[in-house]
Amino acid sequence: xxxxxxxxxxxxxxxxxxxxxxxxxxxxxxxxxxxxxxxxxxxxxxxxxxxxxxxxxxxxxxxxxxxxxxxxxxxxxxxxxxxxxxxxxxxxxxxxxxxxxxxxxxxx
Amino acid sequence: xxxxxxxxxxxxxxxxxxxxxxxxxxxxxxxxxxxxxxxxxxxxxxxxxxxxxxxxxxxxxxxxxxxxxxxxxxxxxxxxxxxxxxxxxxxxxxxxxxxxxxxxxxxxxxxxxxxxxxxxxxxxxxxxxxxxxxxxxxxxxxxxxxxxxxxxxxxxxxxxxxxxxxxxxxxxxxxxxxxxxxxxxxxxxxxxxxxxxxxxxxxxxxxxx
Lengths: 108, 209
Prior knowledge:
The structure holds two protein chains of two kinds.
Chain A: H1 3-22, H2 34-47, H3 52-66, H4 70-84, H5 88-103
Chain B: H1 5-16, H2 22-34, H3 36-53, H4 63-79, H5 85-110, H6 126-132, H7 137-144, H8 154-159, H9 167-171, H10 173-177, H11 179-183, H12 185-189, H13 191-195
Helix pairs in contact in B: 1-2, 1-3, 2-3, 6-7
């Protein structure tokens, strides 16, 4: 095997390893910006008021999200930006479509 | 057959997540109509859910408002200081050192930490224990509300971020930062499919997904 081929294979394996490592990267509290800390604190207080079942649901979703490839995480973030930038009427219509989509077996 | 309140309350949370079938939504609706306790529960959870889901990711100020505000501040500052530059220079000679000394004294007294940010809620909030015992959210909210918060102005309640966060928050801050997004995870994963879903057709057509 030529040296160039070996270098190429090494580069390819490194490129594959980087996203896998990135998706497990978790930040510390101190690494959050003050604005993120405030949001996290507000959400944490609301989370404390949720029933256990609902907290488990968030827990599962968080693990699912963390296990996604970075590109997929980024896609979801972009979708979330688009979702929350909708005006209330459009958002309500979107939620209604979601209910309809779900009832028709969407996502299964 | 009558539905039990315990089942109804499980269904309420699933309904809020949009994960309940239409048939069960109707069953739940019938139960909630008759049961005041579950009705209260549903209203409380829905309010909490809305608060979580609609929390803005970041407070955004429109650029125009920001520029207008800055311009007004500059104009107000110009209007408020009609003295000639020499007088200003004289004031600076006396005032600046005095201001610096006051600031140094304030820093020494408070250790550089503004008193209102030094809130120590390191102890586990009451809400955790209460929620684990299956208390209703309305009751939990009452128990979890810190006593001094009622005496504080509303604007301060939201800003009080602890320097030393509770262990659960410190362990996984990203979970809590992203909570509103996680709430909508299913919608976000199938965003395009949902957007193209039709509302009017009764034939069960589904564009994709």
